[in-house]
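Revision sheet: structure tokens.
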Amino acid sequence: MARLTEGTWVLIADGEKALILENQTDHEDPYLTVLTKEEQENPPDREQSANRRGRFNDSNGVHRSAVEDTDWHELAKEQFASDVSDMLYKRAHGKAFDSIVIVASPKILGELRDNLHQEVTQKVIAEIPKTLTNHSLDDIEKIVKDELDAA
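Predicted:
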């Protein structure tokens, strides 16, 4: 069972925001403080797309088909996960933390997992597939503790 110790980091992330918190106490009564907050401006795809969908003629030249449009909003979320992974690597390499709990929406958790350097993955003590970026610190403390106790 993973436990929060003094100095354990907790990453709270979605595709646009990331909070890095540090536990100041123990597992029984966690007290998380904000170390850093990263935010990416990521407007909806409709505001990022400049053109209408492209079309092309099928091979026989009679039918026309739409070309799937790029989802710029999703691409930005994936890039944000990559950027957070890079930042965690730099911090892990600099010995800023010994253990980390990653809390992220399931899709972003998968993106992070794919991008994390081995030096970071060795320090991950738990992953929690939840979106908590808009929760209060008190709620985050309780949810993270409860999830770790249940695991």
